[in-house]
Specification:
Helix 2 (62-79) packs parallel to helix 4. A hairpin with a 4-residue loop joins strand 1 and strand 2 (35-45). A five-stranded mixed sheet has the order 3-2-1-4-5. The protein has a single domain (2-148), classed as Nucleotidyltransferase, domain 5 (2-Layer Sandwich). It is 40% helix and 30% strand. It has helices spanning 2-14, 62-79, 92-98, 110-120, 137-148; strands spanning 22-30, 35-45, 48-60, 84-89, 125-130. By secondary structure, it is of the alpha/beta class. The chain contains five helices and five strands; from the N terminus they run αβββαβααβα.
Length: 151
């Protein structure tokens, strides 16, 4: 628990220059590709952890897991009343696709992209940034913990 609190403090300080009150970290994991999937999400508000998700999903690809994590994170931020949101993820593909820098070409990802874009409309302001994997360690841990749980 102490290590987790130190991590939250480091992450809060690293992103404290943000003008937005809510920060969402997301990560998807997959054992095999395709294989069992899980997601990890951490929502912070004003530098403090507001909520988190660690959830096992069905079978699919790593990209589906990443998009699912983003979607669940956006829903969580909406449920907590966030109006301005910074979204952080270590999936460069998802960040560039949701930001419009890359097109979504895969037929199985287009519906997830559309769902995420629709959810983005609930925020007054939203920003997406790619972060290094080590800066996303908590969500990585949450998604892998969910994969490790027996059904």
């Amino acid at each position: 628990m102490k290590r987790y609190m130190e991590y939250i403090e480091v992450i809060s300080n690293r992103f404290s220059n943000t003008s937005m009150s809510c920060i969402l970290f997301f990560d998807g994991a997959c054992r095999g590709n395709p294989g069992p999937m899980a997601i990890g999400v951490v929502l912070m508000k004003n530098g403090k952890k507001l909520d988190e998700i660690s959830k096992r999903l069905g079978t699919g690809t790593n990209n589906i897991a990443e998009w699912s994590a983003l979607i669940e994170g956006l829903k969580l931020a909406i449920a907590h009343g966030c109006r301005e949101l910074e979204v952080r993820g270590d999936s460069q593909l998802v960040i560039k696709q949701i930001s419009g820098q890359y097109r979504v070409k895969s037929d199985n990802l287009i519906p997830l992209f559309n769902d995420a874009k629709k959810l983005c409309g609930n925020f007054k302001e939203i920003d997406f940034k790619w972060i290094k994997r080590e800066d996303n360690a908590r969500t990585d841990s949450l998604s892998n913990d969910a994969l490790d749980l027996k059904k």
